[in-house]
Amino acid sequence: MTQLNLSLALHPTQLCPQLDPQLIAAALQQPALPSAFIGQDRARSALEFAIGMDMPGYNLYVMGEQALGRSTLVHDILQQAASEKATPDEWCYLNNFDDERVPSTCRLLAGEGRKLVKKLEALIDELMDTFPAAFDNPGYQRKKKAIHRTFDKRYEEAIDRVESKALEKQVVLYEENGAVSFSPIIDGKSLDDQEFSKLTEEQRQYFYGLVSELETILNEELLELPRWKRELSESLRGLCKDTIEQAIKPMLKQLEHDYNAELGVLKYLRDMRTPLIKAVLELLPDESDGEKNEEPISREFFIEEFVPNVLVHYESMSGAPIVFEANPSYGNLFGRVEYNSSSGSLYTNYRMIRPGALHRANGGYLILDADRLLSQPALWDALKLALKAGEVVIDTLSEHAVTNSTIITPKAIPLNVKVVLLGSRDLYYLVQDLDDEFNELFRVLADFEHYLPYQAETVSDMTQQIQVQMRQMHIAQLSACGLQQLLLFSFRQAEHQSKLSARFADVLELVREACYFAQQQQAEELTAEHVKQALAGKQYRTGRISEAFLEDIQEGQILIDTDGAAVGKINGLTVLEIGDTAFGTPARISATVFAGSSGVVDIEREVELGKAIHSKGVLLLTGYLGSKYARDFPLTLSANIAMEQSYGHIDGDSASLAEVCALISAITEVPILQSLAVTGSINQYGQVQAIGGVNEKIEGFFRLCQSRGLTGQQGVIIPASNQINLVLRHEVVEAVAAGQFHIYAVRTVDEALELLTAQLAGERNARGQYPKKSVNGKARARLALLAELVNGSAEE
User: Fold this and answer.
1) What is the Cα–Cα distance from 740 to 1, expressed in whole angstroms?
2) Most buried of 389, 469, 741, 759, CB within 10 angstroms?
3) pLDDT of residue 237 exceeding 80
4) Can 697 be counted among the known catalytic residues?
């Protein structure tokens, strides 16, 4: 290995975090406490501030990715704040007897809603027991008979007068089944039809005239009969009404006494008196032997008409409510009105109003998923309107205006709720730009970090949570090596040697899977071996595609060399993300150069497979070549660059270092070592910049070299600024320590060229010239020749 290789090669200790054994031992001595939350002091401060600001507009947007502990911290802080607040009042809808289409509202103290419902149901049950039995009362029966006697007396007096006049004219009056008829009298005897037919025609005509005259008198005497019957019905109805009122009065009196301090309930009880009497009068029979099968129907009617519809019951709650609405549709958020069908029509009433999340969270806290909420613009506008107006309205007109149905419009309910939106970073800034009202309503931002500081407090908190999870899996102890392996996993998730990942849910998932393997082995202690088995198991379950890529390379279907040298060819490194897995794989990058003036052509861009950032990286190559080699002549060449056997879209500029090295190799015809793979982006001055996915890229090339046999010459070139991101697997570190594999960190293109070509890159002297035998010297000379071939010499 050359002196340059030695200076740029990373030591095995630089390839992963170096953990402090004393820190791990101290963390293991701490007791397991399930309530400790790890890190996120900035977000915690914002949450506490938003909850403490009990003023309109101080709703909260919680920014961060999934598995950062957003929901856990929000619930922990909200539960503490909710326990210190008073339980909110209950709201109920009541029948509006003046206009049933507009149900009225009533506020009740917490727990009073169910009591009021039970008392009114008891009142109805008492009514069912009282009626029709109350009509069997002797006093009622006596008054009823007196009313009937008055009617009968009037009727009989009228009949008597007609009968007297009939007798004067030798005609007798008969009354049978309510029908009145006349018959002539001859010789003191009334004639039947047969005898009447034997009379002479003159006699019959005479009696016909008498009967007609008597019928006229009868009609005159009974002219007031309809009025008498109407007065009879009204008197009976008034008697029933008085009887019902007298029976109901003490029942309502007791309820009014119980709720004399509740003005809303007291008003409702007084308003319901007249409709209740009317309902009893119309529905309940006034005879004790009425049909029994009508009682359940009558009871259901009374409940539907008079019992309040309490939206939310708080009798078993202490403190303010916390509601998480996972599916914020309009009905789930604002409530809805249900409908029943009868004879092809829809009908509803105040009892069929159902609460939404805003009703359940009123007086407390409502947690919503911002992505799902904001994907429905009408719902978002309705929520903003509710928060600004301070009231929640159930909109029924828009849904049912065109249907054959009864429409009700429930009155608005005052709203006092703190809304917490859980959403992503991109969504927050997008809504902030597009909606001017957003900042007015959501004044507080809780920003969750992606990383946790590697310090004693953080490690201690993580260890406590890990031990709590282990106890749930019935594993008693955590070994020092097991904790070390879990911390390395967290470093790997963060891709940083001094920061832990804030996605602690991933660590707990690994703990559960490692505990499974410990249980299979009947171990009482969780060790590093169990954690490695869990990681290997997940890699095996999700590694089919990465293994398929490796097999394709081994079989020669994908052309990748790991030894030898070639001109214009280099091994680049890529990361493929499929689902929840990401793996690195090498890809050949090739470059060709010839005389012409078309410049550097990115084939991926030309065929629309290269996205914007990738295309930007390739365009930077022209700027680098011009500033590096063509300061005193025009940069004139034709070159093509392609990522071979790539058939999908390519994004990112991490291949630009490999592309410029391949391009310089093609210009100078200096071969590049195929035992090395390269990743990194560059700027126009040839400085190598950091890239993402460095661990997966290194391991992808390592697996290929390992499968073909490590020669001690293979390795990977990465940006020096990515060294702090290295958290490599133990097999890679062991191979580097054994000298079988190498990882080089470079800062400039020249350093990468010297490693790849095993030749000096060359530095510009005072006259601005490079050594002729250096790579840069050869590149400048070839570019000058191409410029002369295309443009002609200065003399020409």
Assistant:
1) 12
2) 741
3) no
4) yes
